[in-house]
Design a protein that fits this description.
Elements lengths: L3 E2 H8 L2 E3 L7 E2 L3 E2 L10 E3 L12 H6 L4 E4 L7 E3 L21 H22 L4 E6 L4 H12 L5 E2 L10 H6 L8 E5 L7 H8 L4 E4 L7 H4 L2 H8 L1 H4 L6 E5 L3 H4 L8 E6 L6 E8 L4 E8 L2 E10 L3 H14 L4 H10 L9 E4 L5 E4 L6 H16 L7 E5 L9 H14 L4 E5 L3 H13 L6 E4 L2 H11 L5 E5 L7 H7 L2 H5 L5 H4 L2
Parallel strand pairs: 4-5, 5-6, 6-7, 8-10, 8-11, 9-10, 11-12, 12-13, 13-14, 18-22, 19-20, 19-22, 20-21
Antiparallel strand pairs: 1-3, 2-7, 14-15, 15-16, 17-18
Length: 505
């Protein structure tokens, strides 16, 4: 963030100073909500959590070097105190905090106000371009590609992983300072108004909308409601801004009528302004294609996995072109961009020859379909086909469509001819996925329903062989990454270690 005095911060967030000997002391570092990450010159954010209350760590944070604490009550050390008030509560898309008295919402609102003030000052000085990305799937992968293609043009700040909610969004925005040229932000939502609220925190001049899918369908109720909310990003753009829209998704393409900004369409459709042709996949499901732009054409070979990355790369290329990059720079950056965020199409081959595709961070029907197609591509490449395994868990937040969507994934696995499907869980959605596979034509033990992670690991340990390709994917609430971490861990390199019960914990 830009350097500010405690008095200035208090004015911005509408707080009062408590136990502050000198209001002109400046915050020269960052804003942190984890007291273990505090450094000299930082501001500590005291949030009440489900297990711990940040206010209890205020003294430790100041002892570690924090200038002061942003809190909802006096804490006995220098603090800027904000008072809970119905008017300060932001639109909330996730249960971030344990907030029975409104104190957490007040601190989050103060954080948002501070981030907004910092970003507005940086953009007014002309030194910062804010790029926002939204979509039902692919936000994090696209954010990582954007950071890669913009880096040759100047310093970039982007969130770690999927830090894209009411806490992560302003926290990331406050990482930008006078040296930052590009601030790349993900915008997530679980209901109408959430993206609009995030866009107010760090107003973007460039907005990217990737797709409208079924993620969080339970909260929204319909794809139309999802489209309406995703479009809040392009509505927030200024007339001097740029909206990058997926021409291959009709609901995204239709958002062109909802923005004052210039529109650039990307995709494989004939009407796309920035287009991919001759798309091909190598043995690791990494896409190559020809990139066509108004500035010319160039070949691209991606290092990230999955055909779905083509659309993400096109969006990144569109933004980079608008920011002044030439085609050669874009091609080099896209071709060299590696997976950055964890548990997203993380492909590794173990010492005993098993290829593990760890895509377990989260899941929705669109991302699972893309991952299954990548799995099949990888298993069939080469002269000798390899056996494919899909270890899938429940996709959360699908509402009334949950059973139908899980049934569809089970059927798709059979249609794609995935050799073995392991469905993890005892709930109705998991049973629907397994039953869908059975009804589509799975026979014998091609599809098996196991009760928990431990049982899945035990089955894999007994039956996975060298050369097999194993995809692991589920919503993050399932914690299915334990399966992938087991497969790529030391126990596989040295033998099958531990009981199934131990491995599942």
């Amino acid at each position: 963030m830009i350097e500010m005095t405690l008095r200035e911060i208090a004015d911005v967030v509408g707080g009062t100073l408590h136990d502050v000997p000198d209001p002109e002391v400046r915050v020269t570092g960052s804003v942190e909500f984890d007291s273990r990450r505090i450094g000299s010159g930082d501001l500590f954010l005291a949030l009440p959590g489900e297990r711990v209350d940040g206010h209890e760590y205020a003294a430790a944070a100041v002892a570690a070097g924090a200038v002061a604490v942003l809190a909802a009550r006096p804490v006995g050390v220098p603090a800027i105190v904000v008072t809970p008030s119905p008017g300060t509560v932001p639109a909330t898309s996730v249960a971030l905090i344990h907030d029975s008295d409104g104190s957490g919402a007040a601190v989050l609102a103060a954080l948002a106000a501070l981030a907004c003030a910092s970003v507005e000052r940086l953009t007014a000085e002309g030194s910062l371009t804010v790029v926002g990305v939204t979509g039902s799937s692919g936000k994090t992968s696209t954010k990582d590609l954007l950071a890669a293609v913009l880096a040759p043009l100047g310093p970039v700040v982007a969130p770690p992983g999927s830090f894209n909610n009411e806490l992560g969004h302003p926290w990331t925005a406050l990482r930008a300072d006078e040296k930052t040229r590009f601030l790349v932000l993900e915008l997530s939502a679980r209901g109408p108004g959430h993206i609009a609220a995030l866009a107010e925190v760090a107003p973007p001049s460039i907005g990217v909308v990737l797709n409208v899918g079924t993620a969080h369908l339970g909260e929204f109720g319909s794809r139309e409601a999802i489209a309406q909310t995703k479009g809040e990003l392009v509505e927030a753009l200024p007339a001097t801004g740029l909206a990058v829209l997926n021409a291959d998704d009709p609901q995204v393409a239709a958002m062109a009528g909802r923005t004052k900004a210039e529109v650039v369409r990307v995709g494989q459709a004939a009407n796309a302004d920035i287009r991919a042709t001759d798309v091909r996949l190598d043995a690791e499901a990494r896409a190559g294609f020809t990139l066509h732009t108004p500035a010319g054409s160039t070949p691209i070979q991606l290092a990230v996995h999955g055909e779905h990355q083509v659309g993400n790369a096109l969006s990144a290329a569109a933004v980079a072109l608008a920011c002044g990059a030439d085609l050669a720079t874009i091609a080099q950056a896209l071709s060299g961009a590696q997976r950055v965020s964890e548990r997203r199409m993380d492909v590794r081959t173990t010492a005993d020859g098993v290829t593990v595709v760890n895509d377990s961070y989260n899941a929705n029907p669109d991302s699972v379909r893309a991952a299954l197609k990548a799995l099949v591509t990888m298993s069939r490449a080469g002269e000798t086909p390899r056996r494919s395994w899909a270890v899938l868990g429940e996709m959360a937040e699908l509402g009334e469509e949950s059973v139908i969507e899980h049934d569809g994934i089970g059927r798709l696995a059979v249609r794609l001819d995935v050799d073995r499907l392991i469905v993890v869980g005892t709930g109705r959605p998991s049973r629907a996925m397994h039953q869908g596979a059975v009804m589509e034509g799975s026979w014998g033990e091609e599809s098996v329903l196991v009760p928990d992670i431990g049982a899945a690991i035990a089955l894999l340990d007994d039956e996975v062989e060298a050369g097999d390709v194993v995809l692991v994917k589920a919503s993050k609430s399932v914690g299915l990454w334990a399966v992938a971490e087991h497969l790529t861990g030391a126990e596989r390199a040295t033998g099958r270690g531990g009981s199934s019960a131990e491995a599942g914990q």
